[in-house]
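Hi P.,

Sorry for the delay on this. The queue was packed all week, but I finally got your sequence through. Input first:
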Amino acid sequence: MNHSKLHGLLQELKFKGMEQILDEVMKQAEKKATSTRQTLITLLEEELRYRKERSLINRIKNARIPWDWTLSSFPFAEQPSVNKQQIMDLSAGEFVEQGENIVFIGEPGVGKSGLAAGLLRETLLAGYRGLYYNVQDLVNDLYSSLADRTTTSLLHRLCRFDVLMLDEMGYLTMNTEQMNCFFKLMAERYLAGKATLITTNLQYDQWYDLFKPKDMVDAMLDRLQHRCITVQIKGPSLRQNISRNRSSSGITSQQKK
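Then the structure:
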C-alpha cells in the first residue's frame, strides 16, 4: 500500500521519527492485523524516542566539551586520592537539583578536567543543559561583550544553563573589568540556584592572588562555598601513567588534565 500522503503529512509536521518507520509499522500492522490503537502507540513511541535522542545529541553538541571523556574511562585505580564512590554518587545529578557547586582542586595532570567533564556529560545524559568553558576564554568573551554592550545578554544566557563547567581557573590574565564580569556571573548563577563545576590548581586562599579586591573575592567565595562540594586531588600526575598504559587505561593521550 502506498503511504505517500501519510509521509507527506508527517514530513510537514516534522514527525521525523514516525516518518522513518511508517512503512515498516504499517506493513506489520497489516500482516498481523494490529489494532489502530496499538499502531498509533508504536508510531508515537518511536517519535518520542527519536526526539529524545536528537535532544541528547544537541545537548552534547551545544555543551562544547572539547574531549570525549566519560567517567567510565577515568583511571580511578591510578589516582587513589579520588574517592570513586563519591564521584559516582555525584554523577546521579542530585547536585544539579540542589544548585551545588563542585570545585576540583589539584596540581596539573591529576585528573581534574577529566572528572569534571565526565560529570558534565552525565548531567547531559540525564536531560540537563550544560556548557563547557575554559575560564580564560570566558573572561575574554565577557570583556568583549562590554564593547558591544551585550554583557547582560551573555550573562543571562550563561545563567540559563543548569551546569556550567569552568576549566583551568588559575592560568589567567585579567583586568579589573574582566574580574567584575566574572564576579557578576558567579553572583547571578548563585542567585539562580545553578550548579557550577570548577577546576583549578589554586587553593581557596590563593584566589586572592588571582582576583581583586579582597571584599569582592570574599563575597564570591561566600556564595560559591555556601552550596559547594570540594574535591581535593593530591595524588600523582596521570600524564606519565597514561603514556605508559595508554592501551589498557581506556583513555586517550589527551586526557591528562
